[in-house]
Structures are given as C-alpha cells and as structure tokens.
Amino acid sequence: MRLLISRAVLWGTMRPRCRYFSVAQNNRNDRKGLVLGVYEREKEDDSLHLTETAAGFDRLLSGKLTELLKMTSLGVCGTEYWDTCKENIRTAIAGSCRVLQDHSLTHIEVDGCNDSQSAAEGAVLGLFTYDDLKTKKKTRVTTKLHGSGCVSGWEKGVLYGEGQNLARYLMEAPANHVTPSVFADTITNRLLPYADHVTVHKRSQEWIEEQQMGAFLSVSKGSEEPPVFLELHYNGCPDNTQRPLLLVGKGITFDSGGISLKPSSGMDAMRADMGGAATVCSAIVTAAALNLPINIIGLAPLCENMPSGKANKPGDVVTAKNGKTIQVDNTDAVGRLILADALCYAHSFNPRAIVNAATLTGAMDVALGSAATGVFTNSDWLWEQLHKASVVTGDRVWRMPLFQHYTRQVTDCQLADLNNVGKYSRSGGACTAAAFLREFVTAPHWAHLDIAGVMTNKDEVPYLKKGMSGRPTRTLVEFAAGLANQA
Q1: pLDDT at 6
Q2: List 86, 98, 336, 352, catalytic entry
Q3: How many domains does the chain have?
Q4: Does residue 367 share a domain with residue 278?
Q5: Is residue 271 among the annotated active site residues?
Q6: pTM as predicted
Q7: What is the pLDDT of residue 71?
Q8: Which of 57, 257, 321, 406 could tie 262 with a disulfide, CB 3.0–4.6 Å?
C-alpha cells in the first residue's frame, strides 16, 4: 500500500478540527482507497488525535499514520457563522477523495469522522465533474462509509450532495443543451421515482397567456425557444392539511441581455442564469428523496432572453399578472420581470412562506462576493429559519435591507407603475431589485435570495471544484427540513 496525505491547513474554533489521510491500494485489479479522519481538540493540547477507525488502521501500519501526523499543523479562525467542524470535514474528505481519484482509484471508503453526513457531502461534492461533452473523462468513483459510522447520516449526506450536484449539472451544461424544455424534462425525469408524492405540470405558452403573465411573456418573446412554466408539487403530508412552502426560481436558461446586450466577455457564463430555478428544483428533488414530511410547491418560469426583432425594447411598458404596469428601461434586468408573475401566482396557493432564488444582480456580487447569499425578507421569523439552516450547511446567507428608500426608486416612474431598474440604476442595485420584487408580494413571510455572487466557484469553497456551484441548494433543503420538524 501507499500512503498519501494533504498538507492543506484546516481551521476550527470551538470544535474538533479535522484532517484526513488518503490511503491507496494499488493492486491493478482492485483500485480502492480509504479516507481516515484526524482531530485536534480545543483547550486540551496541541496534539493530534486519530478517529477510532484511523487509530485501528494506524495499529495495522505500525504507527505510520502517527508518524506522518508529526509533519502537519493546524490553524484557527474566528466566528464565521457556520459550523466549523462540519466545514472542515467536508473540505478534508473532498480533498482526500480527489487525491485518490487523481490516482485512478475507483472505489473509496470514507471514515465518517463522527459526522457521517458532512463526510458524505464532502465526498459527493468533491468528486463532481461536468465532462459529459468531453471525449476524455475523469475516473468515475464510488464512495461508501467505512466501518461503523452512522449509516443514516451518510445516506442523508449523499442525497444532500447529489441535490447540489444536480443544480451544478444544470447550470454547467451549455444553453443549447439545456433549453427551457430540456430543463423541465430533466427535472421531471429526476422526480419519476417519487411519483406517488410528486405532481409535475409543464405549463405551455398558451397557459402562460391565459394566466396573463405579461411580464414573463415579454421576456420570452425575444427567443425562438418557447417558454415553459414548470410547476412542481411535492406532497410530503398526504392529508394536505399543511399549508405549502413555496419555492420560486428564476429560470433564464440563457441571458444575452436582450437589446441592452451584455459585453461578450463572460457572456458564456449566462448559461447559468437559471441558477435560481436549478437550486429550487434540485432542492425539491432532494426533499422528495429524503421523504420530508412537508408540502412544497416549486415554480420555475423558464425562458431565454434574446435580442430578436420581437424582443423588449428599452422604454417598453408591459403588464404583470397583478395588473401593475412596468417600464422596461433595461432589457438586461428581466429576471425580476419573470419572477414578478411567478410571485403573483405563488400567492394563489395560500403559502406558509414564499422563498425565491435568483441570480438577479451583479450588484449582489459586488456587495458580498461569493462569501454568502444575500437575503432580503419582510419576516424576521423566516430570516432566522434560513440563517439557522445555513449555519449547518456552511453555505451562508446574509441579511440585506428592504428600506422604503429603495422602493421609492422603483415606484417613481415616468410611464408606468414601476420601473425595472429604478432612478439610480448603479446605486444599491441589489436592493432596488429586491424592492421591485416586493411590489408583487403580499404574503407576510417572503424572502428573496440573490445568488448572483455565489453562482460560480473558483477556489473559495474548497470542497467544490472550479465552475458552477449549485449554491445554495443544501441550505434550501436544510431549511425545508427544519420547517418540516416544526409542523
């Protein structure tokens, strides 16, 4: 056998800090690997401690793991509004699995590190690669829990990780491969195993017209691809006495900016402008897989924003489902238009709460970068639920303001009830966009998640590779699970 160890420093504060060993067996016909955990405990000493599984393996190797530990060190960080131990485990396991994958190992057993769910999330998220369209593909790896760890926790972590990976897959795929129709079909197929508890409606353009969703239709008319309004019903409480949680996701499968054309540099990333729909729908797939005892309805208006002769022109006025008129001064700010109609429709289900997710504004990226999802909400209770969930998942959220100051900027409009960009288009852009959406909300518990800043990952999240992140799918799942426990 051959021992491999990462030298990356992992941090922790009040809990054990996790490292890992990657152990590879190089038998040509049996390419297996094993991931083992190591801890440093706070307020005891500076020594490192092997997990029970790792200690047993160390004895088999005559103390070789302990010897290697002496060559490593750990660091400490301050309060980060997440569970540091869980993040360390995800990071350590992901790094270890990648090392073994790079050595062409196909089967990896993972030490649960006393938190099998986080270990599974790290393994599943760390090994994800979108190479469907490449001739040469990465080694496909299967992982399983090693030893006597918590099997139910591991299985739950696998589902959490696979849910986020589904969102990553949809966001990463080229726009000509994931059109509105293909997106809807992909989610429909993923929900087939749960048909007893899930109903899917792929609403056509004719239905959208009947619903008088003029804002949504004004965006979709610029493309040759027909729009789809995807409606998912997950009934985790079969008696239907529980009011549903409404999840709404922006589904622009490609955003050229329309007549207000985006710069060509980086426009390819706009294949992921349906990240809100991808995370929302993937969260519902995961909730169904987990059999959560909660009712959830997912809404995803899906279309392209293209600059054809039929497209919106700057200065056009369109009418939303609730009758409000909107002056479209910038055709690149159209995610809020399709969400406006979806939010109006969401109220027809008497929701327990409404949460929408959208890669809505570049201003959100400027404000928070990739550190956290920006949350705008009219409900302290809903904020607490989302924040609590994000501490567990490590996929953080941060509350942003919904002042009347921003509302006045979108309601002071020359030609219509609302302007889609507001008087000062460069100032507080994420806040004015949220204020615009609020004009289509009457529910007392509503939250808007602007995920533009967390859409991609370079190296900020160690257990995610470079590319589309699928964030914050796991936080949405954990949030729904928390509400289910309160029912």
Answers
A1: 40
A2: 336
A3: 2
A4: yes
A5: no
A6: 0.90
A7: 39
A8: 257
C-alpha 263/C-alpha 425 separation (Å) is 17
Residue 270 belongs to domain with CATH number: 3.40.630.10
pLDDT for res 52: 72
Band (41; pLDDT cuts 50, 70, 90): low
Rg (CA), the chain: 23
pLDDT tens for 357-408 read 999 999 999 999 999 999 999 999 999 999 999 999 999 999 999 999 999 9
User: Within a domain: residue 459?
Assistant: yes
Residue 234 located in a structural domain: yes
**For residues 394 and 113, what is the distance between their CA atoms, to the nearest angstrom?**
17
Could you give the CA distance from residue 150 to residue 117 in angstroms, rounded to a whole number?
A: 8
In a domain, 65, yes or no: yes
Same domain, residue pair 205 and 75: no
Neighbours of 345 (CB within 10 A): 23
> Which tokens is 392 given?
């567990």
**Burial (Cβ within 10 Å: 0-12, 13-18, ≥19) of residue 473:** buried
Which one of the listed residues 202, 262, 399, 423 is annotated catalytic? 262
Together in a domain, 204 and 62: no
Could you tell me the CA-to-CA distances from 345 to 109, 241, 328, 360, 436 in Å, in that order?
47, 20, 21, 19, 16
Supply the DSSP symbol for 400. -
Tokens of 70: 């002496």
Categorize the per-residue pLDDT at 108 as very low, low, confident or very high, splitting at 50, 70 and 90: very high
Q: Which two tokens stand for residue 434?
A: 């949220």
**Catalytic: 438?**
no
Are the C-beta atoms of residues 332 and 255 closer than 8 Å to each other? yes
CA distance 172 to 87: 24
Could you tell me which residues are beta bridge partners of residue 375? 399, 449
Question: Can you give the pLDDT at residue 454?
Answer: 98
Indicate whether 144 and 180 sit together in one domain: no
Helix (H, G, I), strand (E, B) or coil at 64: helix
Query: Residue 190: which domain range?
Result: 173-486
